[in-house]
Amino acid sequence: MKRIPLRRCLGCNESKPKNELMRIVRSPEGEISLDLTGKKSGRGAYVCRSRACFSKARKSRRADRCLEVAIPDAVYDLMEKQIAELENNEVEA
Ligand SMILES: [Zn+2]
Asked: What is the whole-number distance in angstroms between the Cα of residue 92 and the centre of ligand 1?
């Protein structure tokens, strides 16, 4: 059986399986992006796919500290969009 790696959410501080979290990644070149596949190389910060955790993480700027760089608003906006999409999918399903 394959073990799913756990990562800590910057919102609720709980450790969760990687595939339940969103990943912000800082590439070796220093570029910040949202990693939806979990396969981009670089240093990652993780947040649950939930609005509550996202809001907390954004407000506290913990991801900035975690990655030692300021996360651009565009990346946060993208995450917010992603969460909204997930919420819509849940409503439709
Ligand atoms: Zn969380």
From this structure: 23
